[in-house]
Amino acid sequence: MGAKLPLMRIAVVQCSKLSDDARRAGDAIVQRLRWADDEGIGLTVFPEAFLLGHSYAPETIRSRASVAASAVAALCERVAAFHSTLVVGAFDLVDGQVFNSAIIIEAGRVVGRYSKAHPNEPGVTAGSDFPTFLRSGVRYGVNICNDANHPGTAQRIANQDARLILYPLNNMLPSETADRWRDKSLANLIDRARQTGCWVASSDVTGTFGNLVSYGCTAIVTPEGNVADRVPELREGVAVYDVPAC
């Protein structure tokens, strides 16, 4: 019998939308990371802009970006004791420019970030770097939400011998728009998995917020395009899967 392939257990979280309350977001993250350590999760992913909330209003985006550094620093202190790598989204401010970023935190330290290459939020600068990271023998990278509509963005990650592409999403949209994207969001993830030969894992918000709705598209997709696990629509929860290192 051949040796078993090493595995990394990943968890992608589907949760309610928060506004700009970094403390409440931190509470949700700490609660989930405590569970993740008990379950042997190596990598835990939260939705796009989850730490301070998503927006399409330029003034709100810049306001949230201006406090991101302090919010991330406070979060790092709170999660320093946990073993799972954390990926969480936030608008952040770098040299006067606003980016929509996914921040990678390990043992209370920011080890990297990816900034959305195809932002559809006013005033947000497109990222140009495509870093990859290694956890438990699995090389992974990040794309964010609208990036899933651009095959070349996923390919930039796959070309670096990545095994896994993470997709923090935020599909909180007006109801008619949400209906149009209800099936398309998952179809995009399946297309990106088949195109790149990578595992794909997404984390989304769900529920209603004013006149907005997100059904939630939180799923783990195999390189063949099969859905290995998915959180039911309109429910908070987590999808978990053991991804092989090679």
Fold topology:
Elements: E1 7-16, H1 22-38, E2 43-45, H2 58-66, H3 68-79, E3 85-94, E4 97-106, E5 109-115, E6 132-135, E7 138-142, H4 151-158, E8 164-168, E9 173-174, H5 175-181, H6 184-196, E10 199-203, E11 205-209, E12 212-214, E13 219-221, E14 227-230, E15 237-244
Parallel strand pairs: 1-2, 1-11, 2-3, 7-8, 8-10
Antiparallel strand pairs: 1-15, 3-4, 4-5, 6-7, 9-12, 10-13, 11-12, 13-14
Helix pairs in contact: 1-3, 4-6
CATH topology group: Nitrilase/N-carbamoyl-D-aminoacid amidohydrolase
Strand tally is 15
CATH architecture: 4-Layer Sandwich
Q: Flag low-confidence runs.
A: none
CATH superfamily: Carbon-nitrogen hydrolase
Beta-strand percent range: 25-35%
Task: State the shape.
Answer: globular
**Rounded Rg:** 16 Å
* Largest pleated sheet: 9 strands, mixed
Task: Identify the CATH class.
Answer: Alpha Beta
The helix content is 25-40%
Mean pLDDT: 96
* Helix-strand category: alpha/beta
Number of DSSP helical runs: 6
Count up the domains: 1
First-to-last CA distance? 17 Å
Order of helices and strands: EHEHHEEEEEHEEHHEEEEEE
Structural account:
The protein has a single domain (9-244), classed as Carbon-nitrogen hydrolase (Nitrilase/N-carbamoyl-D-aminoacid amidohydrolase, 4-Layer Sandwich), CATH 3.60.110.10. Strands 1, 2, 3, 4, 5, 9, 11, 12 and 15 form a 9-stranded mixed sheet that branches. The protein has a 6-stranded mixed sheet with strand order 6-7-8-10-13-14, with helices on one face. A hairpin with a 2-residue loop joins β11 and β12. Helix content is 27%, strand content 34%. The chain is built from 6 helices and 15 strands. One of its GO terms (molecular function) is hydrolase activity. Keywords: Hydrolase.
